[in-house]
């Protein structure tokens, strides 16, 4: 990719900070991608999707967002599931200009036309897609995992939380993309950025851990905490202590913590 001259970048208008319509999806690597997608499908959307061609990735829609599951080609296929990346959708996204502008900051935009991502200093990947985002044309319906209704009516992602070793360093990095942090929500151990109707959280990781995408939240409609708790329990899901009446946390079968937020 050839970097554009600074004058050319200025004429086109900066892509940074992002003119984002929000965080749209998270991607996993998992030992059994289809099984993982089916688990989320029982909760959010029984019709799951898959890629047309191998290596197969599977998808569960979350309203206007989704979760994606693929195999890990570079590790033990039985390695535990982990969240591999998160994605922000960008208004008026111009791939070549984004790559050139990031180069002026010493950052590299890597990937294919369908998957452009940057990797932060701690190894966490953030993907960009043009608004309105959504499933790509290479993705087709796979199967309906149950004839029952979904347990929740998902609206879209609410937040994604990263655990990092140095909060201020990470805040400086993500501030290039999302602008100023949200000061009213800052604590000694957590910093938030606002991305349209969604949020990105940075937390200080525990000693001995590696930087990672720790958990994510999903906004749901017509949220009835007691009813959802009962239905999750009926399919064997572990419900965790939550911070408020309009939220509920559970641990998915892959070990990842997911938070549901009403509103």
Brief description of this entry?
The protein is of the alpha+beta class and 263 residues long. It has helices at residues 6-12, 33-44, 95-104, 167-178, 225-234; strands at 20-29, 47-51, 58-62, 65-70, 82-90, 110-112, 115-119, 125-130, 139-144, 153-164, 190-195, 198-204, 212-221, 238-240, 247-251, 257-262. The strands form 2 sheets. It has a 9-stranded mixed beta sheet, covered by helices on one side.
What does this structure look like?
The chain is an alpha+beta fold. The protein is built from five helices and 16 strands. It has a nine-stranded mixed β-sheet with strand order 6-7-8-5-1-4-3-2-9, with helices on one face. It has a seven-stranded mixed β-sheet with strand order 11-12-10-13-16-15-14, covered by helices on one side. The longest helix has 12 residues, at 33-44. It is globular. The protein starts with 5 loop residues before the first helix and ends with a strand.
Structure characteristics:
263 residues, alpha+beta, 16 strands, 40% strand
Spatial strand order of the main sheet? 6-7-8-5-1-4-3-2-9
Question: How confident is the prediction overall: mean pLDDT?
Answer: 91
Number of strands: 16
**Percent range for β-strand residues:** 35-45%
User: What's the helix count?
Assistant: 5
Return Rg in Å.
19 Å
Please give the share of residues in helix.
Answer: 10-25%
What's the helix-strand series?
Answer: HEHEEEEHEEEEEHEEEHEEE
């Amino acid at each position: 990719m050839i970097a554009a001259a600074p004058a050319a970048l200025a004429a086109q208008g900066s892509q940074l900070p992002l003119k984002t319509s929000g965080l749209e999806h998270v991607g996993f690597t998992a030992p059994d991608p289809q099984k993982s997608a089916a688990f989320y499908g029982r909760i959010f959307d029984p019709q799951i999707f898959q890629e047309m061609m191998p290596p197969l990735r599977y998808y569960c829609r979350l309203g206007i967002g989704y979760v994606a599951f693929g195999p890990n080609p570079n590790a033990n296929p039985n390695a535990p599931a982990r969240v591999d990346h998160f994605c922000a959708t960008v208004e008026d996204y111009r791939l070549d200009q984004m790559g050139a502008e990031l180069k002026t900051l010493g950052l590299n935009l890597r990937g294919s036309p369908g998957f452009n991502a940057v990797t932060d200093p701690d190894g966490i990947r953030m993907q960009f897609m043009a608004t309105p985002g959504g499933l790509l044309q290479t993705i087709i319906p796979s199967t309906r995992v149950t004839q029952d209704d979904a347990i929740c009516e998902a609206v879209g992602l609410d937040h994604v939380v990263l655990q990092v070793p140095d909060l201020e360093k990470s805040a400086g990095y993500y501030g290039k993309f999302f602008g100023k942090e949200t000061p009213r929500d800052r604590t000694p151990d957590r910093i938030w950025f606002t991305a349209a109707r969604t949020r990105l959280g940075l937390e200080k990781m525990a000693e001995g851990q590696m930087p990672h995408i720790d958990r994510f939240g999903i906004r749901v409609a017509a949220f009835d905490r007691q009813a959802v708790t009962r239905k999750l329990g009926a399919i064997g899901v572990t419900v965790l202590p939550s911070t408020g009446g309009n939220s509920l946390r559970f641990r998915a079968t892959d070990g990842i913590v997911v938070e549901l937020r009403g509103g």
